[in-house]
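Onboarding guide, step 5: your first structure request.
Type a short instruction followed by the sequence, for example:

Predict the 3D structure of this protein.
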Amino acid sequence: MERQFIVRKRLIIAGLTLLIGADLALAAYGWRLSSAPHTPKQQLASEVQELELLRADIRRAEEIKQKMPTTQQDCDKFEHSLRPANTSSSAVLAELGTIASKSSLHLDSVTFKQFPVPNRNLEMVDMDATVNGDYASVVRFLNGLQRSENVYEVDALTVASDSQSHSAGGAVRVLLHMKTYFRTV
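The system replies with structure tokens like these:
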């Protein structure tokens, strides 16, 4: 008798497990159906909206394709406006010195590292420069870099108080990490 009770108990538990599993599967299926468009009209509206987005992407790509020759000419014009690589460090050093003196800054040091730009007739020059002066002079120096005919890309600025200068003017030492570019052809 006890054995029959255990068998019945296991059959009931298996049946309940099967019913609960089927209930969960039907709930998931019902949720999936409820989140999808209910009518063909709603489904059509959804697909028409997706089609319009794709058409807008195609129109934008065609506009870009039409403007590509002008963009290429602008890029070539920019590359030709860069200084030749054989004058790189001396010209940059002279220009940085001029900008620093006009800004009332003292240019302490400048180091250069040159790297070729792959697939272009360009050379990238990483520069680290140190300048000393007050805050307004540093701002004028950065403004001078921005207004220069040459391209200077300031990657990082590190500002510290200038321990060598004991003036009350709030002198700062600024370490600049910059990049510039030169044409190799």
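Each response can be followed by summary notes, for example: The chain has four helices and four strands.
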